[in-house]
Amino acid sequence: MSTLTRAGTRRSEEELRALALEGAALDDTDAVAVAKWAAETFPGTLAVACSMAEGVLPHLVSQHAPGVDVLFLETGYHFADTLGTRARVADELDVTVVDVLPELTVAEQDAKYGPRLHDRDPALCCAMRKMEPLARTLGGYEAWVTGVRRDEAPTRTHTPLVTFDEKHGLVKVNPLVTWSLDDVTDYAIEHGVPVNLLLSDGYPSIGCEPCTRRVAPGEDPRAGRWSGLSKTECGIHT
Ligand code: SF4
């Protein structure tokens, strides 16, 4: 059954799957063309996911989709610098930042499950504070754009450019799949895009504060995420 979006009726799954195939045939080295295609193909029904490490993806997409919704998973556990970057992205870019909120506040979660659930059961904490809110929110869109890059982690080596996201039931567009971290940094400098200061302070991958530590020079950039645990992904992109 179709869901109503701001632009009207959401297209059928069959139509969205066909559009995903169309997008998959694009040149995966041309992020600008991919962002333009996404903006033109999903007018008013496109969302951009952003962790606020920097505002590169919101900037790139907003060039073709002014005012585009930028989804920020507001877990309640972010670094102050991440919240500062969120504020700058909202103020300086032509986007609409949408805080995607969990059902429970941190205080309510602490009361129900005990404090520091992230230390005892990070999978449950991520499920409640990231995955469920994101899934609920994506139901109102036809496509979402993420900044996943193939060079970020072994789990991301085969990330497709455009695909039908089976887990969330919409098209997923990854314009930066072939980019390196240097490419992201170069784009941010060239376009004066807000950048989270933590990136240059030993945090090449930024998540919630309790689950992110500094990494040493030369260390795997994602080694600071859920350090000491087997967990390497929150589950959103896997
Ligand atoms: S990253 Fe940590 S604090 Fe954030 S939602 Fe996941 S387990 Fe909870």
TrEMBL record:
Pathway: Sulfur metabolism; hydrogen sulfide biosynthesis; sulfite from sulfate. Signal peptide: none annotated. Catalyzes the formation of sulfite from adenosine 5'-phosphosulfate (APS) using thioredoxin as an electron donor. It catalyses: [thioredoxin]-disulfide + sulfite + AMP + 2 H(+) = adenosine 5'-phosphosulfate + [thioredoxin]-dithiol. One of its GO terms (biological process) is sulfate assimilation, phosphoadenylyl sulfate reduction by phosphoadenylyl-sulfate reductase (thioredoxin). It comes from the Bacteria. Belongs to the PAPS reductase family. CysH subfamily. HAMAP family: CysH. Its cofactor is [4Fe-4S] cluster. This is Adenosine 5'-phosphosulfate reductase. Its main location: cytoplasm. The keyword Oxidoreductase applies.
